[in-house]
Design brief:
Length: 353
């Protein structure tokens, strides 16, 4: 199965690549390992709300409904991505796992659960949310309670009257704390004191700051965004503030069978610990190309690989473009990437699908 371009990943980044690729004459396919559309949004908690209004949470070509005062739910976001894929009839092939990628004779060879695919250009768009990161702690293997990552958390059901530790000072940590603290005894553990944005500021501010950094970089200038905070005060977090639960302490040292222990010997018994500690890029299928560095990332110039011609990486956060891991931000880098791919392939004989 030969294509001009293969995109790995059918979440928001892969769909946006498809939107711009469909405007070209290039043959392409999007390979996705999920059963349905939605990408990383399939693995978020039920009550999650975006912290930017609908109009600031849209992919190119199709506004999310709801206007400037509606902050979309997880389910609304999933429905939007499904509708987006259908509207543009994007060629997504699901439940295809890419196992290994090789390059020979100026052609990428993708070994997958569905057989061999080949292409002249390859885009990795698997996102930053497929490889959950849990820090290492002494004794974690003997802890007898429940250990979850935020990607595994769905709702506070089952946590009633339990002691729950929540680790991480980002938006996911604050939102999950806000919800779990209604039914459980919670302890919020953060590397540093959490920084909350003023109530009237939402994700639009964060995107604007990223855009200013992007424009400054293009102009060869330095831009330092204003430091107002990191956590958006969505309604659930405001409610938690009213209940006086937005208090955190610094990290513990190790686990015991039924407790976490700080360096000074203080310990607290817990039943559940939820790590809201982010993700690492999941690029193991590219290891055979020797492009993944010690941080689990690839060295890129914009989205283009510095090591392998014909390889691009889209939607992995600031190292592939400012705000590129967001719904509204990925369009900018995806468009530029498609332009680069078209230029790259214009001097090559294109394979037939």
């Amino acid at each position: 199965m030969k294509y001009d371009v293969i995109v790995i990943g059918g979440g928001q980044s892969g769909l946006t690549m498809g939107y711009y690729l469909r405007r070209t004459t290039l043959s392409y396919i999007i390979l996705d390992n999920q059963k349905e559309s939605g990408g990383a949004w399939l693995h978020t908690w039920k009550s999650l709300r975006l912290f930017s209004p609908a109009q600031w949470s849209s992919l190119p070509g199709m506004l999310m409904t709801g206007g400037t005062d509606y902050y979309p739910t997880r389910d609304a976001t999933l429905e939007y991505l499904k509708s987006y894929e259908a509207k543009y009839n994007l060629p997504v092939k699901r439940q295809v796992e890419v196992i290994k990628v090789l390059k020979a004779d100026d052609e990428f060879q993708l070994y997958t659960s569905d057989g061999l695919y080949t292409a002249k250009a390859l885009v990795s768009a698997t996102g930053s949310f497929i490889n959950p990161f849990i820090p290492t702690f002494d004794g974690i293997e003997i802890f007898g309670g429940q250990i979850l990552h935020s990607s595994q958390y769905e709702s506070p059901h089952g946590f009633q009257n339990k002691s729950v530790a929540i680790v991480g000072e980002g938006n996911s940590g604050a939102q999950i704390l806000a919800e779990v603290s209604k039914v459980a005894n919670t302890r919020w553990i953060t590397q540093k004191e959490p920084r909350f944005l003023p109530d009237h500021i939402d994700g639009r501010f964060l995107f604007d700051a990223a855009s200013q950094m992007y424009e400054a970089q293009k102009a060869g200038k330095h831009f330092k965004p204003p430091s107002l905070g990191d956590i958006v005060m969505v309604e659930s977090v405001k409610d938690a503030r009213q209940r006086n639960v937005l208090k955190s302490i610094r990290p513990f040292d190790h686990f015991k069978k039924d407790a976490i222990v700080w360096a000074d010997g203080h310990e607290e018994k817990i039943d559940v610990i939820i790590f809201c500690t982010g993700f690492k890029p999941g690029l193991s299928f590219l290891n055979s190309l020797d492009v993944v560095n010690s941080e689990g990332k690839a060295d890129t110039e914009g989205t283009k690989s510095k090591k392998v011609d014909g390889l691009w990486l889209v939607g992995y956060g600031n190292w592939t473009g400012f705000a590129s891991a967001t719904l509204i931000g990925v369009g900018r880098t995806a468009k530029k990437t498609v332009d680069e791919i078209a230029g790259y392939l214009s001097t090559r004989e294109l394979p037939k699908p």
